[in-house]
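Hi all, posting the design record for the shared folder.

TITLE: backbone redesign
STEP: 1 of 1
STRUCTURE INPUT:
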């Protein structure tokens, strides 16, 4: 399995857990809305009983007209948000399905491209030239780095010689050197003491060697770019003939749509999460008013007065209250039970997000990698075991690491494997990085005496 496919499998697992969480949150939000409706009905009935039975009923503030619109607005908001969330989640899943289908199409076209490149003798020769040159350039680059380190080390020794630095800074033995006759005589004497002429020749040769190595490396890099461009021309021509660029553009557009849809889903899920938690302005306003309203009503006294009147109206209201109170209590119990499911769903999402994040942090989403599982094993089984708590994050990351390996290059084709989807949407190319690693046979070690040249022996 290619790295990008495993990355998308992990992303799909995270998305699935997020959908499950939003479903539970929506259920809790609806239960909270139902609970508020029941509480409002109970409060309203108590207010009507107070108006009917209490002499001081004129002091009772009947707030039903203010609460009811808020309650209706809240329930409408919950229903609308859930409707929008379901619709957006469906669009997100459609994008994911389309992305998986497009991935398969691209895989087939890339296999066709690789086959045509392998069958084209000129393309194959261009690839071999590019890769052979790349190996030489990589070696030359390493030698140049060694040379720079050697030059830095040896010139540092020169910098510690005060007499040498004094003459060097004055430009001694150069056309820029100017001094009176006596000073010239003294400087000449100093030059003899520190063997300046021999040492300055060695000193300048170090920088000359480094400059020559830099020039050679730049020339090789340009040659590598030319070889890379020649091979890339074969690749681009075949890709255009089989329609790969159009597929890559569709892939990029589809991933952009998927990202936008994911953002919308996340925003709606956050909104639903507020409803599930009983947060938000409307929730708080309704709760405050209900609390204030119920605190002003002498509920026990109302129940006692009902038994003393001949009117059946207050008895009907009391019986209705007695029916609603257990319903409100039951709804509260259902909310408490749903909170357990909510916590479990949040934990599952956290596990999924941690797994996906660790996969990327460990560098496994790399186009040069593939993953091979055992005969009775698979990425789906490993993910399920992890999500069920049967193994830790460290355990599954070790399993992924053990299953990872470098993608092999076919013996005949040399490997045209695409890196365009290393992060799902990067462009396939022979690569600017490889153009910096193809090269010739210039050896800095031979130019510096194989590393045994000692320019500071004069000191």
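Okay, here is what came back for every position:
SEQUENCE:
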């Amino acid at each position: 399995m290619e790295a990008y496919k495993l990355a998308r499998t992990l992303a799909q697992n995270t998305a699935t857990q997020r959908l499950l969480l939003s479903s539970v949150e929506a259920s809790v939000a609806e239960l909270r809305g139902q609970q508020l409706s029941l509480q409002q009905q109970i409060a309203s009935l108590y207010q009507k009983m107070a108006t009917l039975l209490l002499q001081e009923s004129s002091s009772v503030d009947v707030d039903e007209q203010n609460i009811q619109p808020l309650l209706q607005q809240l329930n409408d908001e919950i229903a609308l948000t859930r409707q929008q969330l379901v619709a957006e989640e469906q669009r997100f899943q459609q994008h994911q399905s389309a992305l998986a289908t497009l991935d398969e199409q691209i895989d087939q076209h890339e296999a066709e491209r690789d086959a045509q490149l392998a069958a084209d003798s000129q393309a194959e020769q261009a690839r071999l030239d590019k890769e052979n040159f790349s190996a030489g350039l990589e070696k030359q680059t390493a030698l140049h780095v060694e040379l720079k380190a050697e030059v830095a080390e040896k010139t540092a020794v020169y910098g510690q010689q005060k007499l040498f630095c004094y003459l060097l800074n004055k430009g001694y033995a150069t056309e820029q050197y100017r001094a009176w006759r006596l000073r010239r005589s003294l400087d000449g004497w100093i030059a003899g003491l520190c063997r300046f002429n021999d040492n300055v020749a060695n000193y300048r040769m170090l920088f000359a060697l480094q400059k020559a190595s830099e020039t050679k490396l730049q020339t090789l890099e340009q040659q590598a770019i030319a070889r890379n461009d020649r091979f890339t021309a074969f690749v681009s021509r075949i890709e255009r003939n089989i329609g790969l660029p159009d597929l890559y553009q569709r892939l990029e557009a589809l991933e952009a749509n998927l990202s936008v849809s994911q953002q919308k889903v996340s925003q709606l899920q956050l909104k639903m999460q507020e409803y599930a938690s009983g947060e938000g302005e409307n929730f708080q306003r309704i709760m405050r008013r209900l609390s204030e309203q119920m605190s002003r009503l002498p509920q026990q006294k109302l129940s006692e007065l009902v038994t003393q009147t001949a009117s059946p109206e207050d008895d009907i209201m009391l019986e209705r209250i007695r029916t609603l109170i257990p319903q409100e209590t039951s709804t509260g119990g259902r909310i408490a039970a749903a909170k357990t499911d909510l916590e479990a769903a949040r934990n599952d999402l956290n596990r999924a997000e941690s797994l996906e994040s660790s996969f990327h942090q460990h560098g496994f989403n790399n186009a040069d990698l593939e993953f091979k599982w055992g005969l009775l094993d698979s990425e789906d089984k490993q993910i399920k075991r992890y999500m069920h708590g049967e193994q830790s994050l460290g355990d599954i990351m070790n399993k992924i690491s053990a299953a990872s390996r470098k993608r092999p290059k076919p013996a005949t084709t040399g490997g045209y494997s695409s890196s365009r989807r290393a992060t799902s949407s990067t462009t396939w190319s022979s690569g600017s990085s490889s153009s910096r690693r193809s090269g010739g046979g210039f050896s800095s070690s031979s130019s510096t005496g194989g590393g045994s040249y000692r320019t500071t022996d004069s000191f």
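COMMENT: The beta strands are 369-371, 404-406.
Let me know if anyone wants the other runs.
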